[in-house]
Amino acid sequence: MMRFVDMHCHLDLMTNGVEIARAAHAEGIGFFCTTVTPVGAIDARERFSTCVNVRVGTGLHPWWIADGTCGDADVGLLEELAARARYIGEVGLDAGKRGAESIEAQAAAFERTMRTVFEHPLPGRVISIHAIRSASRALDILERTGTARSATCVLHWFSGTSDELWRAVRLGCLFSINEHMLATKRGREYARILPGDRLLLETDAPPQLGNPYRLDAIERSLTSTLEQLAQIRRVNAATLGAQIADRSTRLLDFAS
Ligand SMILES: [Zn+2]
């Protein structure tokens, strides 16, 4: 049983990710290592293969479509890997500043991938999803392809409308909450009203990709998010933390 599980962390984009993972294991901290390109996912699987407290997601972040790094061949590779992957992410849509121009290409890639995932069911599949200014569209895709019902869909750093929040709840989605989300009034309100059984913690670290990072910064962020969450929901932090850790441990199959 983990003490903390960071459900959305770019451990592979820290130059010292493996050292952090090893030190975290001793501290009872586990990770959902979300990746941003399918080639990166292959590398990360290899790099973290001996880290029992790390699950590597197969991902294609919408920004890497937006900036032209990833094209059709990458989407094809993503589909091929995702068909056999229990853990998928980071995937999704971004219609904000960085992604608006490529939103159609992102949506086509996301829908293709989610359809492939649905057609290749795997028990215990977990998907970490990015949706900026596009939660309705992302939920449409999850619903239309059937993935919302066949996998555990986790909306990372949710920033949609409250109608979109409740629609996601009805579809069975979970929500990974980080410090940035709790820094906004709307994020705190969502953290207050979400059903308790849908809550998870994340950091989305590191703030700067491709540099060394620190385990104590990750742990501090998780602790602070948990404490704020407990305060907002007027519950005991230790109890809430244990419930979230237990839920995350089961999702990432750390117990076995
Ligand atoms: Zn991320």
Automatic annotation (TrEMBL):
Q: Where does a divalent metal cation 2 bind?
A: H130, H156
Source taxon at top rank: Bacteria
Q: Name the source organism.
A: Enorma massiliensis
Q: Which PANTHER family match?
A: D-AMINOACYL-TRNA DEACYLASE
Q: What is this protein called?
A: TatD family deoxyribonuclease
Q: What is the lineage of its organism?
A: Bacteria, Bacillati, Actinomycetota, Coriobacteriia, Coriobacteriales
Q: Which InterPro entries match?
A: Metal_Hydrolase, TatD-like
Record keywords, A-Z? Metal-binding
Task: Enumerate the residues binding a divalent metal cation 1.
Answer: H8, H10, E90, D204
Which SUPFAM superfamilies does the entry mention? Metallo-dependent hydrolases
| Gene Ontology MF annotations | hydrolase activity, acting on ester bonds; metal ion binding
